[in-house]
Amino acid sequence: MADQEEEELRMALRMSMQNESPEPKRSKPRENAGGGPAGDPEESPEVKSRKVQRELMAAAAERRMMAVQSAEKRVVPAKEERGVGGRTEGQKCVADSVGENLNLGKELSVAEANQLFLMVFGSEVTRDILAQWSNQGVRFSSDQETSMGLVQHEGGPCGVLAAIQVFVLKYLLFLPDELSKATTNMLATSGSRISPRNEGVAPDDLSASLTEDRKSRALVRSMAEILFLCGGNRRAVIASLSILHHSTEGSQDSSKDDVIAKALESLSVESGSDLQKVLRVQAYTTQASAYQRLEAMLPVFRSRMGAMLFLISALLSRGLDSVQADRDDPSQSLVTAPFGHASQEIVNLLLCGEVVAHVFDGRMDLGGGMFLKGISANVEVGFLTLLESLNFCKVGQYLKCPKWPIWVVGSESHYTVLFALDASVQDENEFEGRETQIRRAFDAQDQSGGGGFISVEGFHQVLKDTSINLPSDKLNHLCSSGFIVWSEFLQVLLDLDKSLGGLKDSTGLMGKKVFDLYHFNGIAKSDLNGCQTSSCGETPIQRPRLTKLRVSVPPRWTPEEFMADVKLPSDTSCKDTVVELNKPEPSQHAPLVDCIRTRWPRATCNWVGDPPSIV
């Protein structure tokens, strides 16, 4: 009886280490188990028990060796059936990059790795640019005032960090209830989203109440949303590094960052071959499995390779062939020379899921079967750029008016973030909505590359599509030069009565808007505000910058039109009071204000302290 119990115990032990229960190997069939043939000596129970034990242990060892060898050569798909401990069946028998029993993923082929490296960096990339992209993690600021922001220490990857940042702010400010759900239960909330808040949490209150756990949850949700957006909502590919496997096994959470940093000390990625040796990728088909993987991978993304790994994950989620098909000029690298900045294509991929180079709505037909690709659909978070104020491009309504009042802001060399706490800052009244409708119809006929003018034929189509009835004298004046400029057309609309399809408002319904915006620059700079230096000559604090701006948007009409259309009391002092109330506030200027005015024309801005910097 004791021998039988011991055998069952060993059998149970072996089954616990394998997915299925194999038959033990035997040197020959055991017939007449109760005793040998006549004339053969019968083995004692003790001898038979030891023989069976040896056979069982040998079979188990062989099966385990075969499983390990197989896991190193194949990709285990991330099945969605949950296994022991809430893990997927495909994740149970292989080790992940932070020391748990998850799959590292597969290697890219040499051809795929070379294609990926050349696509991102080109064939003449400098070591300085590679160093920038190999030394930037995805980390939150340690400064309490800016603790909800991702901090940047290297130039170049700011486009990746800013794109992640706007999604993080979406969850922290407007969808905080979703962060209260356990990561393993996030799939349930992703299908039927909790009602969002119309007003976000104030940055001061947010910083005071923000825990590391909530920030991590927001980051996981944001990264997963971006990767699935890139993957057409069908898949997310997550990239890791093979060299992190053994070095982090058994490490505590508090020491994983240090262990990973040490493991990466000798890592240098200077070619597709270097990338192929260390890169491992894994595809996930549901958000629940991706959440779990990303949560386990957070120490890796915080490492110096984090920004590059996330960009690679986004590109592979999109698919290398699809990436090249999206682009107008696939021969150019996505990281631009000579300074290593993230291109507009990278930012658009992370915001919109497509690697397009332009920011206008839809496609622009150049004739002869040629066209340029812009933004194809509405987006969750948007984009504004200083280049529009300089007339180098035209941001379409999709990016300019996203679902949430959060924007990546582009300058000539850097990406920062602008956001509001109140979603109503984007609400349009009747006249603003009408202008948006007309502008979209105008832009649909604009073949100038964002120059803001259309042909006479296109202009007549705009009038038809938007039911505008222009008097003949105004129509002839606008068409006299052979093309129609938007700014001139808008002035005519502002003087055209609503009954004729215009925007003239003599009732004051449009009114003046006053609201607050916040600007976050993630690059760590010396902060001279708030007595950050002492008389003893202490070193200024190196931290990101968060600036609050008071924004005033005057009515659409000019002061002369306002005075002509609104009856004022005869009392002079009262008249002066009304004029003073409607006079724009004294404004401060910085390049960010020019960006804001591309979204809210004629806006004036005020702030306290140093001007907000977009470089």
TrEMBL record:
GO biological process: protein K48-linked deubiquitination; proteolysis
Coiled-coil portions: none
Keywords: Ubl conjugation pathway
Region feature Disordered, mapped onto this chain: 1-52
Domain Deubiquitinating enzyme MINDY-3/4 conserved stretches: 117-488
Record keyword Magnesium present: no
Keyword presence, S-adenosyl-L-methionine: no
PROSITE patterns assigned to the protein according to its UniProt record, in alphabetical order: UIM
Record family assignment: Belongs to the MINDY deubiquitinase family. FAM188 subfamily.
Protein's name in the database: ubiquitinyl hydrolase 1
Species whose genome carries this gene: Actinidia rufa
Lineage: Eukaryota, Viridiplantae, Streptophyta, Embryophyta, Tracheophyta
